[in-house]
Write the structure tokens for this entry.
Amino acid sequence: MITFSDIQSAYERVKPIVHRTPILRSSTFNNLTGLNVYFKAENFQKIGAFKIRGAYNKISSLSDEQKKAGIIAHSSGNHAQGVALSCKILGLKSVIVMPENSLKNKIEAVKSYGSEVIFCGETTDDRERKTFALIEKFGYTFVPPYDDDFIIAGQGTTALEIIDELKDLDYLFIPIGGGGLISGCSIVVKHLSPKTKVIGVETEGANDCYQSFKNKELVKLKSTNTIADGMRTLSVGRRNFEIIMKYVDDIVTVSDGDLIEMMKFFLERMKIVVEPTGAVASAALMKNVLSLKNKNVCAIISGGNVDLELLSNWIKK
């Protein structure tokens, strides 16, 4: 299991590259929920999501031989963009395996960073089969999306910035896809602010980690059904789950409808664009799933890479 010092080292590595993203407030949201809420806006991060943190930390730590072989990753979008931009910065060849149902704006962003995109089926199993077939054929170096120490350490740098600014935080709400963000951030929180409770949030249609946490054993779904494309992983990583069980206080779920209401609030009242996965943690606060009152709470907005036509349709419906 990685340590707090690993995350400190990761921050020194990524700090010259990533943005220190702002923490936003909304008095309207506070009045609506009865909470004192802070939003860590990783939708303002390079590539529009936190994933650049882990990707750059991992890729920049590779040996010269591994870099020379070329980099390959699989992702529905944000990890893909993080790997693609990291490779562009470092001058490396990159190949990204993406599901056929990936959002068009995410595909175009990956291509714009100079990566070759290869399509596969829609599940994480499909992605892995295609990726490892290409590794066997061409000898590429694999950069995992979440089940990796360097990825986890990089994502955990998000919490370093949060705890540095918010000294009296009662709760931190974090979205869970593959588990990289929450596992890294929970290590930081429990080291620097042990009284702060870490709450993971998933959608009801992709609640593998919720089930795993409650059953205390890793659960793998057969399929997912959610508009939050960053949550369509069938299971969190094994490293991630081990850390989650040690440091996370609870996991809750929200509906896709809750995400749409939250994205609409962000647009109308805070004038920011947030993707469905990015709205998950905040939606749990809007719904107040834990019935909290008068608490200092932070929610991580993990990304803002939403297809605007889809967003418009969701809101209209």
